[in-house]
Amino acid sequence: MINFKNIFKKKQKVVKLIKLENLRVISYPNNLLRKKSKEVKKITEEDRVLIKNMINTIIKQKALGLSAPQIGILKRIIVVATKKYYLALINPVITKKEGKQDFEKEGCLSLPNVYVNIPRYKEIIVEALDIKGIKKVIRVKGLTSRIIQHEINHLDGILIIDYNKKFKR
Length: 169
Hints:
single chain; alpha+beta; Peptide Deformylase; 5-stranded antiparallel beta sheet; two-stranded antiparallel ribbon; 2 helices; globular
C-alpha cells in the first residue's frame, strides 16, 4: 500500500513534488507489448515518479491496473487499484496459486474494445518490492488476484488475445 504522505521522504529530506502526468498507453500491435520486461535492480526516484504517474493514469482512465510495458517502459513494475487503495508492485512474482480457476471476461487498455474470457486463479500469493524497496509477500483473492495476474502477464509479453485462438499472435 502506498502512503502518499511519506512516499517522497528520504532521510529527512523531502523531495520536490512533481506535477502528475496522465501517461500515454500504447496499443496493440506495438512490439513493446510483446517484449519481456527487465527486473528493477535498484529503485530510483525516477521509478517512484513513474509509479505515481502510473497510478494517476489508472485513476484518469478509470482502469484497474497498468504495467510499465503498457506505457513503453520495459521494467517489471505494475500498479493495481484495489477496493481500498492503490498497490505498486516492483518485480512481482506469483509464488503460489490456490483454488480453482474462474473464467471471466477481461479487457485491456492496450487492446481497446477487445474482451476475452480468461481463466485466472481465485487466490494467489505474490512476492514483490514496494516503492521503498522493501520485500513484501501478499495474499490476494478475487478481483485483485485477477488484476495482478493480468498485469504480470504484460511483464512477460503476454496479452489477453493470447488466450483466444481466433486472434493470431
